[in-house]
Amino acid sequence: MSETFSCPNCTASLTHDGQDHLTVQCAYCNTTVIVPEELRPSAYRPNYEPLLAHEADLHHIVQLINEGRWGEATALFQQSYGLDKDDAADAVTRLASGLTMATNRIDTGLAPVSQNPPPQQKPQPKPKSAPPAPQSRRGAGCFVFFMLLIAAVGGALYTITASFSSTEIDQMIADITSEDGEIDLNALATLAPSEQIEELIEFGIIEPSVSSPILVETGERGIGLGQLNFPGAVATNPEGEIFIADRDTKRIQKFTPNGVAENSWTITEDHVIFDMEVAADGTLYLLQRDDIFRYDSETGEQLGQVVYSGDRIVSWDGMALSSEGELFAVNGMGDYVVHFNTDGQAIGIIANAEDIPGAEGFDNITIDNAGNLYVIGAADNELGDRQDVVFKFNASGEYISRFGHSSDQPEGFVGIIGAIVVDNQGNIYISDFQGIKVFNNEGTFIDLIEVQGYAGRMTINNNGELVVTTNEHKLYIFDVSGIGQAKQSK
C-alpha cells in the first residue's frame, strides 16, 4: 500500500510504495529520506530490521549521503554492518536511491559506531557531481556519442590537466581508438557518464555530438503566466499546443507549440496533480492520485469523473491515452491496468502484475500506435533483488516481455523513474536521475538525452518532438529525429 509524506528539505510529496526499502529519494531535490516508522510495512520487518539494529549509524550514513560524503558513508556502513568495501558501497548506493537491499549478510552483533543519532539538520541537496548517483550534466542536449577532433594534442594540454597525467590521458585515447585509427563508439560509451569523459571534453580531446538538439527552453519558478511551480504533468493536443499542470497549485497553463504561454485556469479539486492527457476532442484528463477527472481543455470546465468500482481502494499512479482516445490507468494499490472507453467508462482490467512471474508491482504507463502497453514496474532478478523494469503487453493485454534493470549502466535505471513515453517510430523514452534513456521497441538501449535537472514529466507532440518538464521549473522541446543515428566523423 502506497503512503505519502513530505520531504524534510523541500516539502515535496514523497511516496513509499509499501515495499521493503527503508529510504526514498526525493525527485525534486534528490534528498535521501528515511521512511517514517509508522509507514514501514510490518510484513517486511525481517528484511529491514538488521539495518535498524544500528539506527543511529543508519541516520548518520544517510546524513553523509545527503552531504555528498560518499566515501565516509561507505566506510561507516562497512564498519557498522560488517560488509566488505564493495558490498558496503553498493548498499550506500541503494540507500541513496531508495532501493531495497539484501540484509541477510549484515552482522547485527557489531557494536554501534554512532552512540547517538546525528543532530537534526535540514538536509541539503546532494551535489550533482557526486557519485554514486550521477546527475544530469548541464549541457545543451544529448551527449552519448563522441568524435575525435582533427587536432594535435600538444604537451601544453598536459600542463593544465590537473586530475589526469599525460600517461593516463594517452591511455584513455588508446582505449577508445580502434586499430584503424577510428573512434570505437562502443568503447567510448563504457566511459560515460564519468569524470574521464568530462576531462576529455573539457580539454578538447573529444567533443560532444548533439543528436537531440533543444528546440525550446523556457521557464522559471513562479506563479506568473509562463512561470512554473514544480510541474506535475505535461500533455499536448493534436495541434501541438502544450498543457502544463503545476503539481501543488492546481494551475493548468496552455502554451503554444513553440512554448509561449497563452492562458491558464485553476482546478478546484484539492489533490496533488500527478499526470495529464489530452484527447483529440479536447477532453483533458487529470490524474490526482485517488481520482481521475475530465475537463474541457479550453475553458477548464469539469466534464465529470472517471470512475472505477471494481476494487474497494484505488490509487492511480499513471495513465495513457490510445490513438483512439481510450484511457489506460495503473492502479498502484492493486498493481493492474484498467481499460476505459472514450466516455470514461471502465471496460475492465487488461494487465495484471499477478500474472507475471517475479513481478512486484506497476507504476506508470504509456502506449504506442500499435496499441502495445509499456508499464514501469518492479520485478525480482535471478538473485531475488528488486529491480526497476519495463513490462511490455500487446493490445489485448497479453504479456510479451520486460527490459531494464536497476544500475548506473547506460541501459539501467538510477534512482526514481519519472516518466515514460513512446514516439511515432516506437522509440521508448524513460527518465531517471541520469537523464532520459532511449530504447527501441524491443527494449534495446540506443541513446541518452541529458537534461538540466530531473525530467519528471514527458510527452510527444504532433511533430514527433519530445516535450519535457523538469524539477527546475523548465520546459524543453527536443528534436529527437536523430535518435540512434549519431554519426562519427574525424
CATH superfamily of the largest domain: TolB, C-terminal domain
CATH topology of the largest domain: Neuraminidase
Instruction: Please identify the structural class as seen in this structure.
Output: alpha+beta
Radius of gyration: 23 Å
Number of domains: 3
Low-pLDDT residue intervals, each spanning 5 or more residues: 117-163, 189-195, 206-210, 486-490
Main sheet record:
4 strands, antiparallel
Tell me the number of helical segments per DSSP (H or I, 4 or more residues long). 8
Helix content: 10-25%
Strand arrangement within the widest β-sheet reads 7-30-29-28
How far apart the termini lie comes to 55 Å
CATH architecture of the largest domain: 6 Propeller
Shape: globular
What is the average per-residue confidence, as pLDDT, rounded to a whole number?
78
Q: How many beta-strand elements?
A: 30
Beta-strand percentage range: 25-35%
CATH class descriptor name of the largest domain: Mainly Beta
